[in-house]
Amino acid sequence: MAKPIKRVSLQSEIIKYIQSYIEEHDLKEGDRLPSQGQFIEMMQVSRTALREAVKTLEAEGIVEVKNGKGIFVGCRGRKATALESLIGFTMERESLIEALEARRAMETELMAMVVRNATDQEMDELGEITEVLMKKVRADERDTEEDKAFHEKIYLMCHNKVFYAVLKVLDEYTDKLWQFPLDIEDPFKASMPYHEMLYQALRERDIKKAQKINNKLLDCVYDDIAIAHQ
């Protein structure tokens, strides 16, 4: 029966809803799913939220979108067994933890490089980004783009092209892992206050303070992942 879904991690819930729909209706590869409009009405979600979830499902091969024709069950549309789900979840969580550990190691040196190499103008620009980010955080508004801009700016401020490139690869890898966010409602919310503190430490050009705050920022995300589904 069609019913609205609760907002937990919206993308995760939409993904689960569509996967359950495929299973409950015993749909096979190539079978047609409801249209976007029908799904929106069934789940009471926005077109943007549905589109993002469908993109993720398409990337995983669970659905296939045919322009002008609709959404169809993909080659991996079958619901995973309990064992497969457990293995997938474990690998996903372990990969995220490993990515955070790698990020922690690299960003420890990054903080020192930024303090040594960043210009005063770059510090001013980071301050402007931080101000916009924190306004959104305090207003409880979506802050994904500002959060990305904050970290991107810090990466650039190290003034080392190779280091920047490696950090970007790690960042993109982590983004891909977050496509299925382990049912964590907002894994970055607890870390948000540390962004402003980190900016202040960098502005003061205090390496040890910046490293300590950045570690606390990462600890917040790490803790959410470590306890997920325990």
TrEMBL record:
InterPro entries: GntR_C (IPR011711), TF_FadR/GntR_C (IPR008920), Tscrpt_reg_HTH_GntR (IPR000524), WH-like_DNA-bd_sf (IPR036388), WH_DNA-bd_sf (IPR036390). Signal peptide: none annotated. Residues 8-76 form the HTH gntR-type domain. It comes from the Bacteria. The keyword Transcription regulation applies. The keyword Acetylation does not apply. SUPFAM superfamilies: GntR ligand-binding domain-like, Winged helix' DNA-binding domain. It holds the Pfam family GntR. Keywords: DNA-binding, Transcription, Transcription regulation. PANTHER family: TRANSCRIPTIONAL REGULATOR, GNTR FAMILY (PTHR43537). This is FadR family transcriptional regulator.
